[in-house]
Every structure is written in C-alpha cells, then in structure tokens.
Prior knowledge:
Elements: E1 10-13, E2 16-19, E3 28-33, E4 41-43, E5 48-49, H1 51-68, E6 71-72, E7 74-77, H2 81-94, E8 99-102, H3 107-120, E9 126-131, H4 137-146, E10 150-154, H5 164-180, E11 185-189, H6 195-211, E12 216-218, H7 222-225, H8 230-234, H9 239-252, E13 257-262, H10 266-286, H11 296-299
Helix pairs in contact: 1-10, 2-3, 3-4, 5-6, 9-10
Amino acid sequence: MFDYTAEQKTLEIGGVRIGGPSGRIPTVLIPSIFYTKDRLVKNADLGEINKPATENLLNMLADLTEKTGLGTMLDVVATTSEAMENYLQYLIDNTDFPLLIDGSDSLEVNTAGIRTAKEGGFLDRVIINSLTPDTNDELYNVVKDTGLTNAILLTFNSASLASSSKRVEVADILIQRAQAAGISSIMIDTGVMDLPTLGIACKTQHLLKGKYGYPVGNGAHNAISTWVGLVPKFGKDAKKPAMVGSSLMPVSLGADFVLMGPAKDAPLVYPSVAMIDVALSGILIEDRIRPDKPHPRYLIS
C-alpha cells in the first residue's frame, strides 16, 4: 500500500523519532503554542505568558504522548524577537519536546530564535519552521553560521497552488539550498491553505516520499480555519469533528507528521491519530513486521 522507491529516512530530533517506513514509527503531532490570540499569552510583544496555565497544557501534552505513544514536537509561534527568546527559554526549561522556531516570514524573529538556541546550547532540539521558496539568503546564512541542522521545508508558492508536480519541483530546489546551508535533518511540509489544497498536499507527500524518503506532512488544520461556510452551514458542533478529520487524512495517506493547530485541541486529535496508527500497523503485521515501540498498537487498546 505504501511501497516507495526511495529508502525511507528516519530522523531523531530531540529524542523524537520521525519518518521511516509507513506504520513502523508513530506519527509525530506538532501542536502550536503562543499563537495569535492564544489565551496563554499575556503580552505577545514581550513574550509574557500565563505560566501556571502553560504548565498545565505541557503536562496534558506529556500525558497524551505517554498514553498514545505518538511523538510530540511544539510549534513555537512568536511575532517579536524578544517574545521568541522568552518563549524558547521557558519551554527548554519546562519540557523535553523538540521546539519549532516559527517566526512566520520574519527574518529578525527566526534569527533570534536560532541564535538563542545556539547560545543556550539546545540547537539540536530546535527546528526552523520553515524554509520556503521566499526565504532570503540572510536566513540561510544564519542557519549555516550557527550550525543548525534541522529544518522543515515548505514546498508551496503561488505557482504550485494547484499542482502536486510543481510542489515536487519546489522541493527539489529547497532540498538543494537546505543541504548547501548544512541542513541534514529535513522534514517536508507539503502546504495546505484550504480544502482543495489539502488533497494536493496529500498527493505531494506521497510523491516526495517516493522520490526522496524524507519525513513528510502538512498543516492540515489550515483547511478548516479557512473553511468559511463550515459554521454558517453546519453549526459550531461541526467544527471539532472537521478539525479532527483534517488531521486524519494526511496520516491515513502516509504522513509522518501533522501540524495540528492549537495545542488545546490535543485531547481530540491524539486519540484519533493513534487509532489510525494502530489500523495502519495491521498492514505491517500481515507481512510479519511489528511496529517499533512505543507505538499506539501496544498502548491504546
């Protein structure tokens, strides 16, 4: 079902394994934290947070990770350099999860995050999210100068909006640029903007696993956040099931990770993705292959 020509690469970042042959290693979920309008944030410019509430959320994620066997990384969103520095310092002291540096398109914020990790001695636990077709040379230079080796490549631009083959072409270029800058641990985000592009992103992840074998996934939740007619037509009760469904689609089609959106939704998403991982492990059992532990197959039944 998931036979690929390329050897499937397994990465280990901050103690979390990701990638490899489909079904062997649990899906990695990447919740977002400190995003715009996140109630944990008291001052987005300064990076001030509600520490007790944040600690409760981190404990909840740790509990779900242990109960399901799924891997967890955190997408750390910030809009200023000071905020990114403060967020990273707090999280590195209060969780073992690998951390994604997500300053969106801000060179300043992303640079601050990378340099904070370098100076703090935890560069191996961070991943730049992301290097895109629009990323300028300055950020690549920062990556090279600091020795950062972990990155998510976003294979999406206006020219590849409606084409999986063009997204593969974008990936070809990004992989070369990333490797030239010293990136050795590559994860590929195939890019979701809305419901139609979720399908294209899932097709692209299949093509890229076949061509390169790098871990692939996408931010499937974007399909729901941009679905204007969802609540007006179906009511608020339809929003949560749709959100969960969006995360299940890429996993069912071979994704190694999912950028699942707000961390507060983890209690809904983790059990659902764990269920899919168990189902997919059945394909391996038929071939007398057992998934690697820890895995939902051994934990959730």
